[in-house]
Amino acid sequence: MDDASRDETVAIAGELGLRYLVHESNRGYGANQKTCYRHALAMGADVVVMLPADYQYTPRLITAMAAMLTSGVYEVVLGSRLLGRGALADGMPLYEFVSNRALTMFQSVCLRRRLTEYHSRKS
């Protein structure tokens, strides 16, 4: 899914033989996701994996996450930028890290459920 980027995303996807969709104008992160999900489901996808292009998540876990979904045990699998090498080392800005940690702590207390990151992706 390409949200009218100015880089070589579409050309590279074409060279790799991948199917892709392109927004004619930049509609933003949320609209890009909605278009992607809508088209994937319309094409009959059983599993849809969204991986942001900013490298804050590793693509090496896609197969494992898809396997978790197809096992029938899990309905949703979310990545966490706060596990592994660490969010700051992986490129998360300090202001976002601090805000994310504070909000996650607050939500964990309120919801009595602990996740490493409630805000799995910035919007």
How would you describe what is shown here?
By secondary structure, this protein is an all-alpha fold. It has helices spanning 9-15, 29-42, 62-70, 94-111. It has 2 domains: 1-45, no CATH class; 47-123, no CATH class.
N-to-C SSE string, H for helix and E for strand: HHHH
Kindly provide the radius of gyration, computed on alpha-carbon positions and rounded to a whole number of angstroms: 16 Å
**Overall pLDDT:** 85
Largest sheet: none
Give the helix tally.
4
Instruction: Name the shape in a single word.
Output: globular
Structural domains: how many: 2
Strand content: under 5%
Helix content: 25-40%
Report how far the terminal alpha carbons are from each other.
Answer: 16 Å
Structural class comes to: mainly alpha
State the total count of DSSP E strands. Answer: 0
List the uncertain runs. none
